[in-house]
């Protein structure tokens, strides 16, 4: 099925998709900050986590349901499958590889789906608080 949007319009739409500091990330970070949870942004370690609690070696990722293939909400695009299918598969493969690399380096990895944060951000904050309580200082 051909794309119903012109190439120029599609390029404009796609150029507005951010990889850092999305609205969801900013809102989530505010909730963490309000709980007095201090983190570092986009810390330079494997996988470029969205948030890092360096002293506890906890890496937090906020994963989009589309880009990271959420098992609950992902819907395969109907056009340009030759492009999208490998692209999404590379993302999910990379996520698994990053999780493994960080764990091997002594990091605790927490990943939250976009829908989890939207539905119940307090629950996600609580998971981070619990992980922080259980981890020793490094």
SSE arrangement:
Blueprint: H1 7-15, H2 23-34, E1 40-41, E2 51-53, E3 58-63, H3 81-104, E4 108-113, H4 114-119, H5 121-134
Parallel strand pairs: 3-4
Antiparallel strand pairs: 1-2, 2-3
Describe the structure.
This protein is 47% helix and 12% strand. By secondary structure, it is α+β, with helices and mostly antiparallel strands. Strands 1-2-3-4 form a 4-stranded mixed sheet, with helices on both faces.
Task: Look up the CATH topology.
Answer: Endonuclease, Chain A
Alpha-beta content class: alpha+beta
Q: What are the secondary-structure elements, in order, as H or E?
A: HHEEEHEHH
Radius of gyration (Å): 17 Å
Q: What is the count of helical runs?
A: 5
The overall strand count is 4
Q: Mean pLDDT, rounded to whole units? A: 89
What topology, given as strand order, has the largest sheet?
A: 1-2-3-4
Gross geometry: globular
Describe the structure concisely.
The protein is an alpha+beta fold. The chain has 5 helices and 4 strands, in the order H-H-E-E-E-H-E-H-H. The model has no long low-confidence stretch (mean pLDDT 89).
Characteristic key phrases:
5 helices; 47% helix; Endonuclease, Chain A; four-stranded mixed β-sheet; alpha+beta; 4 strands; 138 residues
